[in-house]
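S1.2 Input.
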Amino acid sequence: MWEYTDKVKEHFLNPQNVGVIEDADGIGEVGSLACGDALKLTFKLDKNKRINDAKFQTFGCASAIASSSALTEMIKGLTVDEADKITNNDIAQYLGGLPKEKMHCSVMGRDALEKAIANYRGEPDKVVEGEIVCECFGVTNLEIERAVKENSLKTVEDVTNFVKAGGGCGNCHDAIQTIIASVNGTIPKEKRKPVKLTNIQKIRLVEETLEREIKPALRKDGGDIELIDFADNTVFVKLCGTCSTCSASQVTLKHYVETKIKELVSPELVVEEVVQ
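S1.3 Output.
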């Protein structure tokens, strides 16, 4: 399970500045519901051309909400030029750090701020620059290059954590590795070992396996199963219905559920029951 700082928890449980400024001077929208994260940021300037108010609306996880809330607090009182210097690492540091798998949430905040500032300055929306590398999340080679340069990324999983690229089907892993090698000035080996699945990929495949293979079988006997969390190659689930009271539930969990997940996702995964 991911470890969150007290400040992340505070901004998630008590988010600041939720909403939309109707007569905003700057508006920035990034992400999409299809990709699982979306953010709308609006800000208003006072007579001294400083950001007097900022609000956000976010669809996403706890880290996305916390990052957006923190960002609105960070930019209040700044000039637009000062706000324009805020990086995704500044947002993460303000929160006392984010799990590496959630750094893309701070990047989303940075991107929304850049769009809101561009909107205030009257700059046209940027067309998608570069070539799409990750079809699953619509991430370009230039976006990956920027993330690698700004955050000293070294692996495909690092890139996935920051911009989601590579977290879907995995077809783009070789292309991402080539970009990393190019930015870092290293020469990729002609024959590399297959890239391991990222945590995001594992979670996706576990979800698909549960929905397609495991849940239908359990429901035939009045049972069910829910995915609760994933951490350190451990899949945490909750048994429901007849499975929760069945004397053979642990046999089902280990000899059916875990076996299926090992077979269809990764042999290094284990399944543990969460009793709530």
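S1.4 Remarks. The longest strand covers residues 37-45.
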